[in-house]
Design goal:
Elements (H helix, E strand, L loop, with lengths): L1 H40 L3 H18 L17 E4 L5 E9 L5 E10 L6 E7 L22 E10 L2 E10 L5 E11 L6 E3 L13 E6 L6 E17 L7 E22 L11 E13 L2 E8 L27
Antiparallel strand pairs: 1-2, 2-3, 3-4, 5-6, 6-7, 7-8, 7-9, 10-11, 11-12, 12-13
Helix pairs in contact: 1-2
C-alpha cells in the first residue's frame, strides 16, 4: 500500500512539474512575441537590433526548461520555427532588415546531443559577409552562413543522419540568396556542423548558394516530382548476328527531391556579378541517392501526376513563406 501511494505521489509531482514547465514556456512566449515583432517593425535599426538581442537572451533562458525543444512556438510569419521529423533538431531563425535594405540573420539551434543524449543549444552568429569560400566551408554556429530556413529535410545513410536545410537571405537592395545546406552532428562531441560533402560529383561543395538579382524570383523547394533518367544501352541491330548499336532509353521516375531554378548571368561577361543573375530557364533537381544529393539537370516540376512526355503547366514561383517589415 505504501508503495502504491509513493508511485501515485511521484506521478502527481510529475504532472505538477509538467504543468509548471508549460506555464513557464507560455510566459516566455508572451515575452518573445512583442520582441520578435519589434525586431521586424521597430522604427530604427538600433531598436530592431535591441529587440533581437533581447529575444536571444530570453530564448537562451527558455531553452533550459524541460521539453522546450518540442514546445510549439508560434510567432506568425515573422520568425521561422522548424523541427526535424525525428524531433531531435529545432531551428529558429529570423532577419533584421536595416534601413539601407541589408539583412542580418539571427537564430538558434537546439538539438539532442548524439554523444551525451542531453538536449543542447547554440546561438547562431551570422558571419556571411566574412566567409570567403562560402560553398566550400564547414562552419560552426559561431560563424554561421546566415539564412532564414524554410524547410528541414532528414535523410540517413549507413547509420548517419543528416539534416538538409533550405534557406533564404534577402542580402540587400541589389541581390538575394537561396541556400541548400546540409547539417550533421559530430559523433565524438555531438556538436553541429553546417555544410557537408553530400553533393555527388561536386568536389569540395559543402553547400549550394544561389545568389541572384533582387528583382526576380527563384524556386527552391522539396517535393515529390518526376525526373527523367537517361540510360545508354547496347542493343543488337535487327537482322544482324554480330552488329550492335548504342541507344538511349529514358525512364520517368517519381521521387522526393530538391527542385530549384538554375541561375546565370543575364548578360555575357557578368560572371560573379550576382545582381545580373536571373533564372536561366532550366530547372534542376537534387535527388537523394545512396547517401548523396545527386544533381539532375533538366528536371521539370509538374502539377499533379502529369508525366514528362505530356503537356504541362510549370509550377508558379513562390515568394518566401515568411515576411519582413514593409
Amino acid at each position: 500500500m505504501k508503495r502504491i501511494v509513493l508511485i501515485v505521489t511521484i506521478i502527481l509531482l510529475g504532472f505538477v512539474a509538467n504543468g509548471q514547465d508549460k506555464a513557464r514556456m507560455a510566459d516566455y512566449a508572451a515575452v518573445l512575441e512583442p520582441l520578435f515583432e519589434a525586431s521586424q517593425t521597430a522604427a530604427t535599426d538600433n531598436e530592431r537590433y535591441l529587440a533581437s538581442e533581447q529575444a536571444v537572451q530570453v530564448m537562451s533562458e527558455a531553452r533550459a526548461v524541460d521539453g522546450s525543444i518540442s514546445w510549439k512556438w508560434d510567432f506568425g510569419t515573422k520568425v521561422s520555427v522548424l523541427t526535424s521529423p525525428d524531433k531531435k533538431v529545432r531551428l529558429i531563425t529570423w532577419p533584421v532588415v536595416r534601413d539601407n535594405g541589408e539583412w542580418e540573420c539571427f537564430g538558434f539551434i537546439q538539438y539532442q546531443n548524439v554523444a551525451t543524449g542531453e538536449v543542447e543549444f547554440a546561438v547562431l552568429n551570422d558571419k556571411s559577409d566574412e566567409i570567403m569560400n562560402r560553398e566550400e566551408s564547414i562552419l560552426e554556429p559561431s560563424n554561421w552562413f546566415g539564412a532564414v530556413y524554410q524547410e528541414i529535410i532528414q535523410t540517413s545513410n549507413e547509420g548517419r543522419t543528416y539534416y538538409t536545410l533550405l534557406g533564404y537571405n534577402g542580402v540587400d537592395n541589389i541581390t538575394q540568396r537561396k541556400i541548400i545546406e546540409p547539417v550533421w552532428f559530430k559523433p565524438a562531441s555531438g556538436k553541429p556542423q553546417f555544410g557537408q560533402a553530400l553533393f555527388r560529383r561536386e568536389r569540395n561543395i559543402r553547400r549550394v548558394v544561389l545568389e541572384y538579382s533582387n528583382t526576380v524570383m527563384v524556386n527552391l523547394r522539396y517535393e515529390e516530382q518526376f525526373v527523367r533518367d537517361v540510360e545508354r544501352k547496347r542493343v543488337k541491330v535487327k537482322g544482324s548476328k554480330n552488329r550492335y548499336r548504342t541507344v538511349e532509353v529514358t525512364h520517368d521516375r517519381k521521387d522526393k527531391m530538391i527542385m530549384f531554378d538554375e541561375v546565370a548571368p543575364q548578360v555575357e561577361g557578368m560572371e560573379g556579378l550576382f545582381q545580373y543573375y536571373v533564372p536561366s530557364g532550366e530547372e534542376m533537381a537534387y535527388a537523394f541517392i545512396d547517401g548523396k544529393w545527386e544533381l539532375r539537370r533538366g528536371a521539370q516540376g509538374r502539377l499533379g501526376d502529369k508525366r514528362l512526355n505530356k503537356p504541362f503547366e510549370p509550377i508558379e514561383k513562390a515568394a518566401p513563406s515568411y515576411s519582413t517589415r514593409n
